[in-house]
Amino acid sequence: MKEGNGIIYMVDKLVIGHNHVMFNASLTAIIASIYDHQQVLFVAEKLHSGLIASKNSDIQNLIFEPFEEDPLPGGKLTKLLPWGKKKIGDWMFISKYIKRANASDQNILIFTCLSASSLLYSAMKVRRKKFRSYFVLHGELEFIFQHGLPLKNKLKGWLYKQMLKSLGEQTSCIVLSDIIKRNLVASGLVKAENVIAVDHPVITRTVKYASKPKDPVVFGHLGIAMRKKRSEVFMELAQYFGQALEKPQPIFRLIGKMEPGFTSLSGNVEVIANNNQIISQQEYEKNIDDVDYAIFSFDNENYVYRVSGSLMDAICHGKPIICLKQVYINYLFEIAGNIGFLCENVEEMKDIIGRISRREMDVLEVYGEQQANLEKLMLRFSVDEICKQLEAQIR
Question: CA gyration radius for the chain?
Answer without folding.
Answer: 22
